[in-house]
Amino acid sequence: MADKRIVLWDNVKFFLILLVVVGHLADVNVERSQLFKGVFLMIYAFHMPLFFFISGLFHKNTKIKEKVVSYLALYLILKIVFFFVRIVNGGEPSFKVLTEDGLPWFMFTMAFFVGITYVLRDMDKRYLLVISILLGLFSGYDKEIGKYLVESRNIVFYPFYLAGTMVGKEKLEGIIKNPKWKIAGWVVMLGWCGLCLMYTDRLYILRHLFTGQNAFNSEIYSVGFIYRGITYVITAVVGFAFMLLAPTRSLGKISEFGTRTLQIYFWHHIIVLLLQGQGIYVKFFSHALYMKAAWLLLSIPITLLVAWKPFRHPVDWILLPIRKKESS
Q1: Can you tell me whether residue 61 is helix, strand or coil?
Q2: Residue 202 forms part of a structural domain
Q3: Sign, Cα dihedral of 46, 49, 52, 53
Q4: Backbone angles phi, psi at 218, to 5 degrees
Q5: What is the CA radius of gyration of the chain?
Q6: Residue 178 is assigned to a structural domain of this protein
Q7: CA 242 to CA 261: how far, in whole Å?
């Protein structure tokens, strides 16, 4: 029998995927706006690591081959789609099978995390967590680790997935549902947002670390492991605060759409890139602060549109072997 869905996690995932869309709308024009830089820092500090943590919470050592192949299939198909989007936008066609710094990286990394966690299933997870954190702290010194096989992100973000497999869902849900923790969540989230908007330029040095795909730059190279450690702490604290603020009751369609985050992830950036490629931001949204805010608010209709059932393909079809087995 399939596990009963906990609406809390569907709510968390919906608001996380909404932030993913906001983050990509900010990122495509981040060099044009101080606001976008601040929003980028706010979101990228925790949104993907938290997705990995939640995925780890629900990790099961079953149907591993099907899961790995399904994620790799999504990775390949999305790369092919982006190949044609570049052509539509007037860019040079480019296709590298095993090198990725665009959106498909998440699919490849999920395949890797599912597979490696299964392979290491009999080892002491506390030991593995320490080793994975140390690898993350020092991997930035090796400039050979990069976008090939999504190596850098696999190393940097794996501690969050592994930590998710180690945490008891019931205990965590109890903390999140305790109203006393909500105040702490608001303090942390508002504080982090305020810091990102007020001290954008000072904090922007962390950008290349939050993305997880870069070696340490020259500004921090000698103490890069310390900066990586700082970003790990920020990610953990802000991510936990975000979970504390999640609604615990059903939000109707919002909660339902939280079950379709992979579908939303697959489709949304295609729309973002097409809007960007046709110059929509420059033509209509770049002239005033309130219009830049309106550009970011496009995330809401985009998210709701691609959460609609007609967009469930090809994701549902590719994941069908997994879902059939898990529901049996």
Answers
A1: coil
A2: yes
A3: negative
A4: -65, -25
A5: 19
A6: yes
A7: 17
pLDDT for residue 188 is more than 60: yes
**Domain that residue 70 falls in:** 7-326
Would you say residue 1 lies in a domain? Answer: no
Mutual angle of helices 224-244 and 169-177, in 10-degree steps = 70
- CA-based nearest residue to 8, from 170, 187, 238: 170
Could you identify the residue written with the tokens 């810091």?
195
Sequential DSSP letters for 20-39: HHHHHHHHTTGGG-HHHHHH
Q: Structurally, how many domains does the chain consist of?
A: 1
The 10s digit of each residue's pLDDT in 11-35 is 999 999 999 999 999 999 998 899 9
Q: How far apart are CA 313 and CA 309, in angstroms?
A: 8
Q: Residue for token digits 């991510």?
A: 239
State the Cα–Cα distance between residues 96 and 94, nearest whole angstrom.
7
Q: State the pLDDT at residue 18.
A: 98
